[in-house]
Specification:
By secondary structure, this protein is α/β, with parallel strands linked by helices. It has 5 helices and 5 strands. β3, α3 and β4 form a beta-alpha-beta unit. It is globular, with a radius of gyration of 16 Å.
Amino acid sequence: MKITIITVGKIKEKYLRDAIAEYSKRLSRYCKLEIIEVADEKTVEHASEAVEDSIRSKEAERILKYVKEDAYVITLEINGDQLTSEQLAAKVEQLGIQGTSHLVFIIGGSIGLGKEVLGKSDYALSFSKMTFPHQLMRVILLEQIYRSYRIINGEPYHK
């Protein structure tokens, strides 16, 4: 299976880049992984809703350039479904059984995803009602994808 993670913004912190590299290496034995970073828009403090919508639309345009028609799109949203690691593994496994060969996970920028991206989503996933920095979310997502493959393959993982 091919897994693409499309994310807004770059990772500046070395410790996060190191963690991303480690999980990318671990995942290479289970799937073909691609991480695509699109540029983020500068967001001013106390921006109006119209300005925030404009920012989300610009970021959405950049994101959607990389979404292929045959891909199953999972957006990370605070109001999405919250799954256990086992449930996420079951979902990934079931999609593969059904013939899905390309999963795309999308992580928005600091003010979330534009309606254009949300409209392309096949599934909304939430890791928590809490808000996480989108740079850290990339590490968390990679770890959970890795954990999913360990579960699917009946390999030990830390509970």
